[in-house]
Amino acid sequence: MENRDIACLEIIVNKIGGKIEVKPGVNWVRFRLHSKQGILNLINIINGEVRNPVKLNQLEKICNKYNIPLIRPENLTYNNAWFSGMFDSDGSVYFNLKSSQLYISVAQKEREVLDILCEKHNGSVYTQKNSFKWTVYKKSEVLELLKYFKLNLPESAKKNRILAIDNYFNLKNNKAHLAPEGSSQAKAWNEFTIKWNNWE
User: Fold this and answer.
1) Averaged pLDDT of the chain
2) CATH class held by domain 82-198
3) Where are the domains of the chain?
C-alpha cells in the first residue's frame, strides 16, 4: 500500500503477526507473512469473505494445501464491511475541478464484483481498456453510499475525503464554487479544495 496507508497494515500485523517492509526512495510499504500459524489465522479470517473470482481461486488452492474447506461467500448484505475494505484497496473519491462533480469509483479487472456493488449501492459499471470501473456520481446515490461508509469507515487515508463529502455538498449548496473571487464563500471553497488535494 502507499506509505500514507501504513496504519492499515499495522492493524493486520496487530491481529495476525507478520511484518511491514518500508523501502527508502519508494512511496509504498509491503506487508509480509511467513509463519504457518499466521497464515492459518489469516485463512480463517478471510475464508467466506473473498468475492473476487480470481482471488477466490487462489484462496481455494491455499485451502487445499492446508486441508481447509473453502467457504464461498454468501450474498452481500448492506451492513457487511467487505466493501469498505475493498474500497481501501481499489477505490477512489474525487471531484472534477471544472464541473465540481464528485465521483466515487472502484476499478477491477473482473466485472462480477462490480455488478454486486450496483445491486447494493447503485451506480454504473463502465468498460475501460483492460478493466471495468464502477462509479457513483448522482448526489442522492453518493449520500446514500456515505451512510454506508459512516457505518463501515475505511481505514485508509481515503476516509479523509469520505468524511469531507458532507462539507463538499454544503459548500456546493451555498454555491461557494461559483462565488466571486475574494468573497468569503470563494475562500471557503479554495480552502476546501486545498485540503482535498492534500489528501491524495
Assistant:
1) 93
2) alpha beta
3) 3-65, 82-198
What is d(CA 117, CA 83) in angstroms, rounded to the nearest whole number?
8
**Is 21 strand, coil or helix?**
strand
Contacts of 15 (CB under 8 A, 6+ apart): 41, 45
Average the pLDDT over each of 36-40, 94-98, 111-115, 149-153 and give the range with the smallest value: 94-98
Q: Give the pLDDT of residue 78.
A: 85
End-to-end, the C-alpha distance of the chain in Å comes to 13
The Cα 186–Cα 192 span in angstroms is 10
**Sign, Cα dihedral of 108, 61, 6, 161:** positive
DSSP conformation class of 111: S
* CA–CA–CA angle 95, 97, 100 (5° rounding): 65
pTM listed for this prediction:
0.88
- Percent of the chain past pLDDT 90, that is, above it, reads 83
Cα 200 to Cα 27: distance, rounded to the nearest angstrom = 13
Burial of residue 83 (CB within 10 Å: 0-12, 13-18, 19+) is buried
Minimum mean pLDDT range among 90-99, 147-156, 158-167 = 90-99
